[in-house]
Amino acid sequence: MKTIRLTLIGFLIGFTFNVAARSEQDTSQTKDADRGYIVQVGDQAPDNFELVLHDGSKTSLKELRGKIVLLQFTASWCVVCRKEMPYLERDIWQAYKDKDVVLIGVDRDEPLETVLKFHRDMNITYPLALDPGAGIFQQFADKKAGVTRNVLIDRTGKIRFLTRLYDEAEFAQLVQAVDNLTKEQH
After folding, report:
1. Which of 42, 110, 121, 174 could bridge to 114 as Cys pair (CB 3.0-4.6 Å)?
2. With helix as H, strand as E and coil as C, how does the chain read?
3. What is the pTM of this model?
């Protein structure tokens, strides 16, 4: 009985240390997957799609290579997106648009008329892109995952920061990441 008890205690101590050690490791991959992402920081961003903007113009991540790109996945029905958008407009778009930063809202699966009204209602100046069928969204996140997420892509096309929902502390980190990228030599 004593041997079983000591074995059990040893197992529990070992298990506890193993769990603690794993939780201290870089868990960004797990964290990103838990948040619905299928990409992670450090990955080359998918770029095999065209962005059709609400004004009819077109661009792509390939065309934007050499610039810092922030893709904001959004939708007009998303309350959290609407909460975040004024901060994106002020703290990222207005603050960094003259520093090689491009911010594009990618509107998930809504028709042009809805996207145009959304753009007007939100009083933003950064462009919104159409994402019919959520095909672009699904290159970054699981099809069933929600919007209100930002993907920060550096000048070389690598993903440098991912957000999910709107959290003031995480948003401040996003702004800092954008600022840091603008200061890197290219």
Report:
1. 110
2. CHHHHHHHHHHHHHHHHHHHHHHHCCCHHHHHHHCCECCCCCCECCCCCEEEECCCCEEECCCCCCCEEEEEEECCCCHHHHHHHHHHHHHHHHHHCCCCEEEEEEEECCCHHHHHHHHHHHCCCCCEEEEHHHCCHHHCECCCCCCCEEEEECCCCEEEEEEECCCHHHHHHHHHHHHHHHHCCC
3. 0.83
